[in-house]
Design goal:
Chain lengths: 190, 73
């Protein structure tokens, strides 16, 4: 009988202990929610909910360190502002008549040189006239003479009249096409 | 006062023109004449110069009619 009572007591003690343990297990989920909460919140890493939890857990800063990722978003902004092309006014093309007048007027070329250039131009115009009137001479040779003359002029002008030299360079093809065209050539003053 | 202004304008215009040796060298270059640079030049008449080049060439550069004429000397 005594043995039974003792066994019953042990059973009761064990039951009480298990009840206490069970009650403890049931209360733990209420105290521990902070730990499980932090783990799920860290994974998505949204900034707003984090600030409340960070005080208990100093381990959150490392995940916050990965926050600078949004930085690449502002970087593309300065790029569109970078291209600031500064358009410089380009010298316009020049007509044959204006070219002649400006060469006459420029102080960049001396009297001997101007007269020598005029002699070369007159010779070229005579050869072109012969080509147009009777197809005398070779057009390629005439074109070479013309190009040589243009280069001489540009060399004389480039130091003191760079704009005129550039305008001549831009107009050289137009002027040649006008010289080669019989109708346009006939309009030139003799 | 007006005379002084005229003289100043003429001086400015003259300084804007290339110097005679530069003009002579430009003409020789345009005509494809070897020269190097101008060593000396001597005026023989109006628009008539005798030019001595640093490479030893000598030329007479003149205007005859309406053409520039270059003769080897």
């Amino acid at each position: 009988m005594v043995m039974r009572i003792a066994a019953l007591r042990t059973v009761l003690v064990a039951c009480a202990a298990s009840a206490v343990l069970l009650s403890c297990n049931g209360s733990e989920p209420e105290t521990a929610p902070t730990e499980p909460r932090t783990a799920p919140t860290e994974a998505p890493a949204p900034a707003p909910p984090e600030p409340a939890a960070p005080s208990p857990e100093p381990a959150t800063p490392p995940p916050n360190a990965s926050a600078p990722k949004p930085a690449p978003v502002p970087t593309p902004l300065p790029q569109p502002e970078a291209p600031a092309p500064e358009a410089q006014p380009e010298p316009a093309a020049i007509s044959l008549e204006e070219l002649g007048a400006r060469i006459k007027a420029t102080p960049a070329i001396g009297a001997f040189s101007k007269l020598s250039l005029k002699n070369d131009i007159d010779d070229l115009v005579d050869d072109l006239r012969g080509y147009h009137e009777g197809h005398r001479g070779d057009l390629d040779d005439l074109h070479q003479s013309y190009e040589a003359l243009v280069l001489k002029l540009m060399a004389l002008l480039e130091d003191d009249e760079p704009d005129l030299a550039l305008a001549l360079a831009r107009s050289r093809d137009d002027i040649w096409s006008r010289l080669v065209n019989p109708a346009e050539f006939a309009k030139l003053p003799n | 006062m007006r005379k002084i202004a005229t003289i100043l304008l003429l001086a400015i215009a003259a300084s804007a023109e290339p110097a005679v040796p530069d003009d002579l060298l430009a003409v020789l270059t345009l005509k494809g004449k070897p020269c190097g640079s101008i060593k000396s030049h001597e005026r023989k008449g109006e628009s008539d110069y005798l030019v001595t080049c640093t490479d030893g060439h000598r030329y007479r550069v003149s205007i005859q009619g309406d053409r520039v004429v270059i003769e080897d000397k």
